[in-house]
Specification:
binds aspartic acid, four-stranded antiparallel sheet, single chain, eight-stranded mixed sheet, globular, Glutamine Phosphoribosylpyrophosphate, subunit 1, domain 1, 10 helices, alpha+beta
Length: 345
């Protein structure tokens, strides 16, 4: 009898515990789904920094830039809005900018000293720490797609030249002739720059119109991804590779801190590891995104580097600092809609 009462007591106790557990499971699920629902997706992009002044750019041209940036934001954000991932949004937005002759990536990329094309691109997933990049490629139609596929289908991080193109073939990526990317405008720019080669400053450095493209996205699950694509710098020689395909310099993403895409004078971004520097300031100094971004650009400025970054954190903060006259940039959130900017404020 006594044993029977004891068993009953244990059974009731276990039942209570189970209920508590169920309740707490339910609470966690409720909390989780609430947290998940609370993450409102967003996308930030850039189309390069540089000497972008009102007097240098016609109204018509500015509008063309703004329209293309808006197209890219729309394409990337609609993926996020429909529940797609930040990786998909970054790749989609960058592909649109690569297809436009306005920017220094894909079609319309700047030309090397030998009047040819040499594309660099990188991609990083802030949830998995996976990263992929390609450098010095000439015939892959969408370099950002190649970089993304390196991040998911290769055990390496950075592939270059012919090998990267072979990898692109294995991934069945579309290839085109280098001429597909070359525009008259870039040919003219290159020749003008080469004519100035006796100027006091190295003509390579004097060309302060950048135009690399990049994107950083936050999806509904709170995951960040970042990517960057470029033709590099006009008149580059000796197989020069800039910061854009260098993880930590041109691109960085980590769900614990932020995602960053850079544009500017690549050598300075490499030496100062700018994209990672923003994340490191958040991680080790507990800076918020704005302070981290501003101080990284201040450091770049101190070292004599020019350019800018776009950055986004998991709380949804967006920051787009630069030390050039302007930067083609924009973002899309559910509350702001599409916002695009060109000049400094
Ligand atoms: N950062 C690029 C490079 O140095 C250039 C750019 O941002 O336009 O290759």
């Amino acid at each position: 009898m006594r044993y029977g009462i004891y068993l009953l007591f244990v059974a009731i106790l276990m039942g209570c515990q189970q209920n508590e557990q169920q309740k707490s499971d339910q609470n966690t699920t409720k909390k989780d789904s609430l947290t998940k629902r609370e993450v409102s997706p967003r996308l930030v992009i850039h189309g390069g920094a540089g000497t972008i002044l009102r007097k240098n750019i016609s109204e018509q041209r500015r509008k063309a830039y703004e329209e293309k940036l808006s197209d890219a934001l729309r394409a990337g954000y609609s993926i996020l809005h429909e529940g797609g991932t930040s990786s998909e949004a970054v790749v989609a937005a960058i592909q649109i900018l690569e297809d436009s002759p306005l920017f220094n990536a894909g079609v319309g990329a700047v030309l090397t000293h030998d009047e040819t094309i040499s594309h660099d691109a990188s991609f990083m997933d802030g949830a998995t720490n996976q990263a992929g990049a390609v450098a010095g490629i000439q015939t892959v139609k969408h370099p950002i797609l190649a970089a993304y596929l390196v991040s998911i289908n290769s055990k390496h991080v950075l592939l270059s030249g012919e090998g990267a193109q072979q990898f692109a073939d294995e991934q069945q990526l579309e290839r085109v002739e280098p001429a597909y990317f070359i525009t008259d405008r870039r040919l003219r720019q290159l020749r003008e720059l080469q004519k100035k080669k006796h100027a006091a400053l190295d003509p390579f450095i004097k060309d302060r119109k950048y135009g690399t493209v990049g994107a950083v996205a936050l999806d509904k699950d709170g995951n960040i991804a970042a990517g960057t694509s470029t033709g590099g710098m006009t008149n580059k020689k000796y197989g020069r590779i800039g910061d854009s395909p260098i993880i930590g310099a041109g691109t960085y993403a980590n769900n614990n801190t932020c995602g960053v895409s850079s544009t500017g004078h690549g050598e300075f971004f490499i030496r100062n590891v700018i994209a990672y520097d923003v994340a490191a300031r958040m991680k080790y100094q507990q800076y918020n995104l704005k302070k981290a971004g501003d101080s990284a650009i201040a450091e770049l400025d101190k070292k004599g580097g020019t350019g800018g970054i776009i950055a986004l954190d998991t709380k949804g903060a967006i920051h787009m600092p630069f030390n050039t006259a302007g930067m083609f940039r924009g973002y899309y959130t559910d509350t702001s809609g599409i916002v695009v900017k060109v000049f400094g404020e």
